[in-house]
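Practice problem: DNA-binding transcriptional MerR regulator
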Amino acid sequence: MDENQQNLHHLLDFELLNKLIVGIGEVSDITGIPTRKIRYWEEKGAIESEKSGEGSTRRYNYLNVKKMLLIQEMLDEGFTLDAAIKKVEKRMETLNEAFRKLANTMTEHRE
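Answer key — structure tokens:
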């Protein structure tokens, strides 16, 4: 398996993606987005952390990390934060609908 196939395999490994939950510091290190900005985006409702208790470290799943990357990309392109959030939400809805249809198609073919 070449490197591109391995990378694609990781993107399609839904079990791995469901387990992928990282702390805010790790997200910041990986994405280059400052923790302060991540907290602000959460306050604005753009992303959601998975808090296990009061005072605990904010932790984010794969989809929220993806949203952060998309929001940052749009900010870099000149979008306002509110416009970026709306565009990312629309994109995520479109992707979710497409994957839902794909899953239904796959289920129908198995039957």
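Discussion: The helical segments are 3-11, 14-19, 24-31, 35-43, 62-76, 81-110. Students who identified this feature from the tokens alone can consider the problem solved.
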